[in-house]
Design goal:
Elements: E1 15-17, H1 21-28, E2 47-49
Antiparallel strand pairs: 1-2
GO biological process, one term: protein K63-linked deubiquitination
């Protein structure tokens, strides 16, 4: 099974859980760590692109993985 955590056509991106489908799938999930999820029953994707976020390559930032 191919692992999928987001679109594979980009090198990077910012995504959010879709409402209500993605939120419901992740909220009800009992698994821990990295794993795949079943597609929502309504056919919508679990994640959707954050089209309201813009990249500024001149900004410096750090990302902390809090898992």
């Amino acid at each position: 099974m191919e692992e999928r955590f987001g679109p594979i056509t980009r090198h990077y991106g910012i995504f959010r859980l879709s409402e209500p489908s993605g939120i419901t799938v992740v909220r009800d999930c009992k698994e821990r760590g990295f794993h795949t999820h079943q597609e929502p029953s309504d056919g919508r994707p679990i994640y959707e692109d954050c089209s309201n976020v813009y990249f500024n390559l001149n900004l410096r930032f750090e990302i902390f993985d809090m898992r």
